[in-house]
Amino acid sequence: MIKKIVVTATRRNWVIMAKRRIWVIVVTGLVVVTAMNGCQTPSPPAPGDMYQKNRLHAGVPDESITQGKALAAKYCMSCHQLPSPDLLDADTWEKGVLPQMGPRLGIFEYKYQRYPNNSQDPNVGRGYYPAAPMLSPEEWGAVIAYYTALAPDSLPRQQRREPLRADSTDFEVMAPVMRDKTPPATCLIRYDAATRQILTSDILRHSFDRWVASAGGFGDRRTSVDIGGAVVDLVGDRGGYTACNIGAFAPNNAMAGHIDRLTVDGQRFVPGDTPVYSGLMRPVNLVGADLNGDGRQDWVVCEFGFIKGELSWLENKGNGRYEKHVLRAVPGAIRAVVQDYNHDGLPDIWVLFAQGDEGIILFTNKGNGQFAEQRVLTFPPCYGSTYFELDDFNRDGHPDILYTCGDNGDFSTVLKPYHGVYIFQNDGHEHFTQQYFFPMNGCYRAMARDFDGDGDLDIASIAYFADYRSQPDEGFVYLENKGNGQFSPHTVTAARCGRWITMDVADIDGDGKPDILLANCSVGPGFIKPATDWKKGPSFIVLRNRMR
After folding, report:
1. Beta carbons within 8 Å of 548's beta carbon, 6+ residues apart
2. DSSP readout, 62-94?
3. To which H or E segment does residue 227 belong?
4. Rounded to an integer, what is the distance from CA 370 to the centroid of its chain?
5. Which of 288, 357, 475, 539 has its CA 20 to 30 A from that of 135?
6. Span 352-381, mean pLDDT?
7. Alpha carbons 8 and 411: distance in angstroms, whole number
8. How many C-alpha atoms does 354 have within 13 Å on its Cβ side?
9. How many CB atoms lie within 10 A of CB 295?
10. Beta bridge partner(s), residue 165
């Protein structure tokens, strides 16, 4: 199955939110990971071969199903993990996902239904797809039969052991002063502790903004720079900021993304005359590190892309020149973490991939700019991976993985029981076992900090594709660590005022407690209409920590 391949005209501008860091974006029962403490912590429904036909396709011959399964295993697994039919409902397979997969196998039409074709895109080209169909019409029909006949009529709803508890005492909601009528479309939020400023970017205004405290609210927009795109990631230093500009925000294959330098002149941002690096495919994440030990800072760039994309690193050659090295030439790189994992003095790179072949890969630094690739975790291609970070939850000195999936802006726009927050525990030898799962529809990010000051890691999480109709408070969830791998879920009712696509955690008011910043991207795809009009909400809010 190929996800997020082509976008229909009506949704073309808002299918992939980057995630990725956006959407920013990042995509659960895991096939390659076994559940730990299953009697104590909830687990997502485990995919498996039901071999029980649903009522909509009860007449499909068993021979077609058997043939289709074998063909799917042969062809689908050449690109990504083989998805089980019960990960999606039958209608979504037939009308949403499989028509996007067909072109990857050279199939552009089946039973008078035309499939999307990107070969006319100059950034893709005719050579991208097979020159001839890899399967006959009968074989392709068997693949369709396998997925549609064994998929459920509808997916089960998420089940939580403990319901969300609204709490108005843990966090105080503070909003900025809004002086214009433009619907907020905030795609970046970052707190700069050195200047005590909140930095944001807006995809509709094409702006990079600076906010400071004021009497009317926590944050008043003081300066704004037109950056001709959307900044979705930011790295600060003493002289200013290095900004990751996604370029054209809508899904596309153009190499229009770039890395810019923004210096600070008094109270103004001053963009550089030329980009630090240009010609990137929708970059969404930027990490600086000296990767080859020459004393100069290089850059790891996650080029999420669309049909095409890359994970690359830019070698600093000095005098403002960079040489690009491609680590993995596939789309979907959404977040990188640089860390000397094996303690050999060389920075290694952990990367989360979405967009089809989903998973976390460790690139071990071998020196001299060489890296060895090792897959750590693999997820089904319909998960919609959105974010991860390395956190030591059990305090054994080995980083565990906090992971989220929930991108639901593609061709499988249904609520999924496996979307949510995961913790994978590290055994110290790069083997990770699922230790915790919290169901959360459309989850986009989770960040672990000791919010309540009791010495362990709690989790703040957001959902961009939440179940706003039946669970309007699901957009923000605070998971309080109760010990022994158990977390108690809380929410803040006042946080309904926005649709949160990204977040940051920082001590905003200087009281020693981590506060939470949530970015409101009020525009974008969505199949569940909320009761709250996010377009009238603030660009962001600050959840001021009132605990302890």
Report:
1. 452, 453, 513
2. HHHHHHHHHHHHHHGGGTSPPPPGGGS-HHHII
3. none
4. 27
5. 357
6. 96
7. 9
8. 40
9. 8
10. 490
The residues near 69 (Cβ < 8 Å, ≥ 6 apart) are 49, 146
**Residue 337 near residue 350 (C-beta atoms within 8 A):** yes
Phi-psi region of 399 (alpha: psi -120 to 50; beta: other; left: phi over 0): beta
Q: How far apart are the first and last CA of the chain?
A: 48
3-state secondary structure of 438: strand
Mean pLDDT of the chain: 87
Amino acid at the residue 80: H
Say if residue 26's pLDDT is above 70: no
Answer left, alpha or beta for residue 77, where phi above 0 means left and psi between -120 and 50 means alpha: alpha
Tokens of 498: 């926005």
Q: CA 454 from chain center: how many Å? A: 29
pLDDT at 14 over 80: no
Task: Calculate the alpha carbon distances from 160 to 33, 41, 111, 388, 457 in Å.
Answer: 21, 10, 42, 22, 21
Residue 281 contacts residue 305 (beta carbons within 8 Å): yes
- Render pLDDT for 481-491 as a digit per residue (tens, 0 to 9): 999 999 999 99
Considering only the C-alpha atoms of the chain, give the largest distance between any 2 of them, rounded to a whole number of Å: 73
Select from 357, 376, 496, 500 the least CA-distant residue to 429.
Answer: 376
- In a 10 Å sphere around its CB, with 0-12 CB exposed, 13-18 middle and 19+ buried, how is residue 97 labelled? buried
| Per-residue confidence (pLDDT) for residue 96, from 0 to 100 | 93
Tens digits of per-residue pLDDT, 31-80? 333 333 333 345 666 555 445 677 666 678 888 899 999 999 999 888 88
In whole angstroms, give the CA distance from residue 93 to residue 100.
10
Q: What confidence score (pLDDT) does residue 47 get?
A: 53
Nearest to 279 by CA among 258, 309, 260: 258
Report the alpha-carbon angle 23-25-29, nearest 5. Answer: 125
Task: Identify whether the C-beta of residue 189 lies closer than 8 Å to the C-beta of residue 520.
Answer: no
Which residue in 503, 498, 495 sits closest to 537, CA to CA?
498
The per-residue pLDDT for 16 is 34
Q: What is the pLDDT of residue 443?
A: 98
3-class SS letters over 142-185? HHHHHHHHHCCCCCCCCCCCCCCEECCCCEEEECCECCCCCCCE
Q: Supply 22's token pair.
A: 């956006």
Q: What are phi and psi of 457, to 5 degrees?
A: -90, 120
Q: How far apart are CA 462 and CA 420, in angstroms?
A: 10
Least confident piece of the model among 309-313, 341-345, 427-431, 454-458: 427-431
Position 163, amino acid: P
Cβ atoms of 534 and 215 closer than 8 Å? no
Tokens read off for 291 = 């990767």
